[in-house]
Every structure is written in C-alpha cells, then in structure tokens.
Amino acid sequence: MTEMMDKKTAGEGVRMERVFSTEGVHPYDELDWERRDVVQTNWKTGEAVFEQRGVEFPSTWSLNASTIVTTKYFRGAVGTEAREWSLKQLIDRVVSTYVDAGEEHGYFSGPEQAEIFEHELTWLLVNQYFSFNSPVWFNVGTKSPQQVSACFILSVDDSMDSILNWYKEEGFIFKGGSGAGLNLSRIRSSKELLSSGGTASGPVSFMRGADASAGTIKSGGATRRAAKMVVLDVDHPDIVEFVETKAKEEDKIRALRDAGFDMDLGGADITSVQYQNANNSVRVTDEFMRAVEEGTDFGLRARGTHEVIETVDARELFRKISEAAWACADPGLQYDDTINDWHTNPETGRITASNPCSEYMSLDNSSCNLASLNLLKFLKDDDTFDAETFAKAVEVIITAMDISICFADFPTAPIGDTTRDYRQLGIGYANLGALLMAMGLGYDSDGGRSMAAAITSLMTGTSYKRSAELAGVVGPYAGYARNADAHKRVMRKHQAANDEVRTLHVEDARVLKLATQAWDDTVKLGEVNGYRNAQASVLAPTGTIGFMMDCDTTGIEPDFSLVKFKKLVGGGSMQIVNQTIPRALTKLGYQPEQVEAIVDYIAENGHVIDAPGLRTEHYEVFDTAMGARSLKPMGHVRMMAAAQPFLSGAISKTVNLPESATVEEIADVYMESWKLGLKATAVYRDNCKVGQPLSDGKKKAADEDKTEAAPVETEVVEKVVYKPTRARLPKSRSARTTSFTVGGAEGYMTSGAYDDGRLGEVFLKLGKQGSTLAGVMDAFSIAVSVGLQYGVPLETYVSKFTNLRFEPAGLTDDPDVRMAQSLMDYVFRRLALDYMPFDERSMLGIHSAEERQRHLETGSYEPPMGDTGTSDQLISAPVVEAREVVEPVETPAEVEAELLATEDLADEVIAESAKPAPREAHTSAELMEKLTGTAVDSPLCMTCGTKMRPAGSCYVCEGCGSTSGCS
C-alpha cells in the first residue's frame, strides 16, 4: 500500500488523450448555437408551469432536451440575473469544479493534461455522448451541498434508536431529491419476545411509519412520491406478512374505489392506503430456491439466535410471492447468493440491500454516483460500432466520476465515510434498444444479446482498467487492502464470463476482442496497483438524463414504440416514425422505395405486421415494449442475463407481462431469473394496479377516425361534432345462448347480433328469478345493450370489466375460459372470444384454448391465414350519421405545411413519415394509445399532466423529464 501511495507524489498524473476535442479549438466553437423560448404548460389544466425565454442551446439539441435541461438543471431564480440561461453556463459550472478538484488532488501531471481533460469532458457532454446523473447537475458548482450521488443504501438495527434514526436519515435523503433502500431483516419478528417479556412489533409495523414519512416529505420538495426500497430476507419469520402487505392494500384500494372514493394515483383518497411509497423486495437464497425446485420445507429463523422457529413449505411461500406480484407488482426478488458471490468487499460486510431501482447493490450506509453513455452516438455511418472511441469515452468519464468523490458532500456521516473509503461508481449506458435496431439486430435474439454482452463487457473492463491506472496515481480505495483477494477474484470472474461470450457476427466479435484485451490489462494492472474503486458499473433507468441526451430508449430497455411524439420549435407537434427504423431497413438490405413504403405503413399503423415488402424474419428487429409485436417477458429476462455478468451492480428493469399473465408465468420469470444469474428481478402485469390512471385511447381514436373520414368538398374543411345515434337491431336477428358456471354459480347468457355480425345486445340470467342479484343483472344487461346500440365499442366494455374481482369466482365449465375472477370477468371474456377479431382481443390478452395450444406448439397465438379468430364474420362499424357544422378550420394540407415549416423539422425527420400529431397526444405514450386504441398502463405526470412511460423500474415523463421516483 505504501509503495502504491508513493506514486501519488511522483507527479505522473493519469494519462489523458485528446480523442474527441480539437487542439486549439474550444468544443463550444465547433457547434452552431441558437436562442429558444421554453414555455411549459400542464396539458390537463392549461396552467403555465414554467417560462424562460431566450435560452441558448446547440441547434442539434431537440426542443425536448433543451426544455428538460432548462426546467430541471438551470440554477437561480427565474426572472433574475442569477438565473442560468445557457447550456454553456451549466456545463462550465460542473466541468470547472471537476477540473479544479482533479488538479487539487493530484490526478493530472500538469495544466496541459488538465486542459485535455476539461475539453474532452466538455465535448462529450455538449455533444450528448454521455450525462452525469441528475444530482450533479442540481448541485455541483452551486452554493448547495455538493451532493453527486443519486443512489443510497441505509441500515437499521434491532433497536428503537436505530429505527427512529432510519426515519430521520431517509427523510433527509428524500428532501434532497434522492432515494434510498435498506434491509429490515435485523429487526425482530412479531413472533419473538422483547427483553421486557412482551412481543416485538415486527418490521412490517415499522414500515407504516416510514411509509407515512415518505408520503409526507415527497421527494425534493416536489409533488412526486419519494423513491425507496424495502428488503426482507426470505428466512425472516414475518416474511408472509411482508409479502402480502401491498397485495392486501390493493384489495383495499379496489373496495374503496368501488365505494366511490378517488383512488387514482394522486387522488384525494389514495393517502388512506398504506405502504405505497416503497418498492418491496424479498431477498432469497440459493438454499430457498433449491427447496422450491425440490418441493421441500424451509426454515424461518429467529433474528437474535438464528434458530429455526417455524418451518414452511418452500413452494407454497414461493407461490405466495408470485401471487402478490401478480396482484400488485410487489414484491420483486433479489438473489442474495448471486449478489454476494460478485461482491468485491466481503471482508468489510455483506451486501444486504439495494437502492430503490435495484441497480446499486453495495455495503450498508453507502452511496453511488451514476453516469450513462449514449450508445447510438458511437454507431458510425457504416453501421459499425466504434468500440475504440467508446472505450476512450469510458476512460474520461470514470476519471471524472472518481474525482467527484473528492469534493462531494453526503447526507449522513456514515454514508460519507463508506463512500470515500470504497469509492463506488456506477457507469452505464442508454439507447441500447435503438442501437440494436439500427444495426438490424432483434432485442430478443442471440445476435442482439451477444452485442449487448460485448459492449457491456468492454465498458466495465475499460472502467476497471482506468480504476487500476488511477490507483497507480492517487492510490487504491481505503478498503482495498483487506479485500484485495476478493476484489481480484471478482475481476477474474468478469474475465471468465467475457471468455464465455459466443459471438455471432463480425461486429460483436470485434467489440469482444477489445473487451478481452481490456480485461487482460485490468487483471495485470490490478495485481500491481490495486483498484481505485470498489465497483464501477450499473445499468440505471436513465429517465431524465436520457431525454437530456435525446435518447430514443432508456437504460437497457427496448424501444417503447415505433412511432414517437415530437415537439417542434415555434409550437406544434409531429407524429414521426423512429429515425432508427429507416437506418435499420437499409442495413437489412431494403431499397429506398421499399424503405419509404414500410415507413409509411408504420406511420399509419404503429407496427410492422404485414408491412409491404418486409420479410417476416425481420419482424423481430422492430419488436418493442408496446404495441402489436411487444416483446415476450422472457425476452426481457434473457437480455438482462446477457449483460449481468459484466456489471459491478445490477440492472434497473421491470419485466412487463400482459394483463392475461398467470401466477405461474410470474413464478417462471422469477425462477428463470435465478437460474440465469440475475441479481434482481421485478415484474409488472398490465392493469394490476388501480392507482394507474388510464386514458380513453379507444374513444379518442374512434372520434379522430370519424373526423378524418369526413368528406371534403371545398378548400375549407367543416369541423363536425358527432351526436350519438341509436342503431336498433332488426326485429329478427341471430343470437346465441351460452350456459356457464363460475365458482359453482350457474347462469345463462344470450347475445344478439346485427346482420353484419356486430354484438348488439346481451341478456344475463343468474340465480332465482326475483332475487336481488337477478334484478341487478337484468339492469346491467339493459345498460350494456343500450350502450352497444349507441356505438360503444365492445372492446371498451371488455377492457373495463375483465379482471374485476369479486365472488362468485373460480373455475368455470368453459374450456376457453378456465378461470374467472368474477361473473363480469367471465362474461366479457366470452363475449370477446365470440365477437371480437383476433387482433383486437389478442392485444387484451384474451385467447381461446385452441390458440393457447397453438402458442405452446408454435410460439404464436395467431390463427391460420384468413381466420379472423372469432366465431362470426365481422366488419367495421358504420360511421354515425348525425353531425353538426361548427366552424371551418385549416385543411390537413395547410396544417401539415405549417408544421413542416418549423425550424428543426427538416433535419430531424423524414418528411414522408411525419404528420401532425393528434391534438389529444402530448407524449409517445398517449400517441400509442391513440394509434392502437389500448391504454398505456402508466401514471400521469404530476407536473405537466401527460402520460408517462416506463423507464427501468420507474416511469419518466417525456414532456418535462419528471420521474416517478428515480433520479
């Protein structure tokens, strides 16, 4: 150690190369700059929430990126001279602080090396090649505490002093706009005795106080909820209570909603529900998972003595976990033995918890600062990945991230001590989904996974190589000596995993070759110098900073959708096809006229199914998180497994499942994640939460379609307002009667149809005539029938009434619908199967027994060509006839011409695929609802009122950059 530290005084400095910037030219002078006005409005209320005019940004930055930076990161009171107004001021404020600290702490051999570092770092930031996490932009270079970390892990012991201190420390972290996680397993269970002879309260009871604190303080003084993670070990005697906590609260939410209370996210009455401010995770061991596989018993242990005080059936407990996750998306799983097998500091202590999004896993009372690279920036014009310059960028970024720990402030003294002693870093990336698509690689394909593995391995290998170089200049981290053998063992594990990657094409082989060299250098340098950082890499959600870099995709996520919403300078908005799609089609060998036709088709339909000239084997390249070809759950798991062996920490990502997913499917995701070596897994089943407000996308789509279909006889288009007109069924019509049994309750359903096959009426008979239930069902049948005849789509009823849960429920005698959560759930699933086309009900996750069998045999639910997937031949509903002229408006051509004239459109979109976005859409999530007619199961942004979209384990708003709990 002494020999290593002596090098710090030798004046060598870390090696800095000028790769990106040009000697003698400041990075700012290489760009065109322009002034813009940033005005932000809440779309729901019309209220202006922010305004700053004349801000300065490079012309290459989108309006969305400049809006988010101006509203989130510029410091100083709006309207005063102290307010920042240029991106140059923001970057200079941060970079100058890093350069000064680097010089002060001996990182550079002299002013020349410091200048190279300054220019390289500035160039990468201003050209959107990477971004630091939000606290850096909030705090560095200001009068505020210089907090640079977004991720925190706390600890709590089995004492009232420690528990109350937990509340206090968590509150300070929330106040600063960050999130924290901790493990409650040291707290005695409610089945153990206190020293006074009484019974302990148990960790779940103390979670109530922490939840109330988080809900009151919020995060950063804003309106969004705090971000926190609560972990409990699977062998804790209160594990069942912990597992079922949030699922029971979700039942309460449904009951209160049905009673008329406002239980939407942010609703007036949602605060009466507990445990909603945290993500819950169960920390499982290999012993427990093997017991689940083998069907054996598992012991729950006392906290003090570690003696087994209760034995449970492992499979039954695992099913309870899966059932709770099915019902409310909590708890997730963290795999304890896998996490600690990759731990570089076991001599200091075990890893027991994570940050709220599960990507940062390290010692108790520690923190991590994050930075993420924009992968698409490294894709060259010939569609090859520039791995060499990617590695050079990693070297600069890791150097800057380590320097930040030298001057950083921390919310508590223990966190500061641990972070300075172990210097945990979290470099990662964004835009992986867009990169793979542009390279013609499917996200859920062997080629896509091998490319992701190679890039991740190169990133982490280069990071630890630079960490070893830094250790040779300014010394290894303080805790390295006692953990040296363990740290070097983990480096060899990463190297061995790199050797096991099997490449499938020239590109991933070239990247992997560089990664292999990086790991060889890392291991050799580490033997001599040690390492400056206990950890180097994680994959974070990159919500707000992803928009700052104009990324199409966040973190490790696939593309959200093929059609995006784009704001325009000067006002207005456009609906555009992702710019990676034409590049991908060209890469796949399509000619320009074919590319144009496919892009036009995607612009109209939002997917690639049946796109003209597109070969079916290329469909997988364009699979997305949302839409007609959404990725299968295991596709998400396999991609995480490809990247995990090359990360110090873990991955912030949720495995999305359709609403029709079963408890068994969630259990399979959890089990397969363990087998594939993931450190953590979270799931989300569509529409499993009441508190996720859904928009009426289908209704809006229908209204827009009718408006666009109106005949144009002159240059002035008449704006029409449609009034509902009842289309009565003919006196004699076809009908079908279905007998059914749900949970032992028998009933009959008769459905009548129009001549074209559309459903027009429903009659339900249940129980004895004259009973209250029978009368209610008669009234309900009439209401539904009248609604159908006034044009309410059957799909609307199906989406609203399936998955309602109440008695009677259970097994049915219908082979197509084996289980029903209620009578309503069964009735509308049956009606969907009888009257809805395959494509429409498949998007709702409703399939017949034959289709499910076909999926098991072929991997596809789709019926043979020409089969509609319904019992009857269906045609589209006729346009409602009644209309009223209101006022003339601009023609579509005039609107499009006006939007095409805006300043930034010509260079950033393909004119053939761009068209005015629907007025109802303000984000890509709302645009997808408009195109597909299905709701996106995401919360509304509390700042601007738009529908957010998933980013890792949380949600992010495209309109203002706000997140649902992750920085």
Automatic annotation (TrEMBL):
This is Vitamin B12-dependent ribonucleotide reductase. Its EC number is 1.17.4.1. Its cofactor is adenosylcob(III)alamin. It catalyses: a 2'-deoxyribonucleoside 5'-diphosphate + [thioredoxin]-disulfide + H2O = a ribonucleoside 5'-diphosphate + [thioredoxin]-dithiol. Transmembrane segments: none annotated. Residues 729-834 form the TSCPD domain. One of its GO terms (biological process) is DNA biosynthetic process. Catalyzes the reduction of ribonucleotides to deoxyribonucleotides. May function to provide a pool of deoxyribonucleotide precursors for DNA repair during oxygen limitation and/or for immediate growth after restoration of oxygen. The gene is nrdA. Belongs to the ribonucleoside diphosphate reductase class-2 family. The keyword Ligase does not apply. Residues 37-128 form the Ribonucleotide reductase class II vitamin B12-dependent N-terminal domain. The keyword Nucleotide-binding applies. Keywords: Cobalamin, Cobalt, Disulfide bond, DNA synthesis, Nucleotide-binding, Oxidoreductase. Residues 149-684 form the Ribonucleotide reductase large subunit C-terminal domain. One of its GO terms (molecular function) is ribonucleoside-diphosphate reductase activity, thioredoxin disulfide as acceptor.
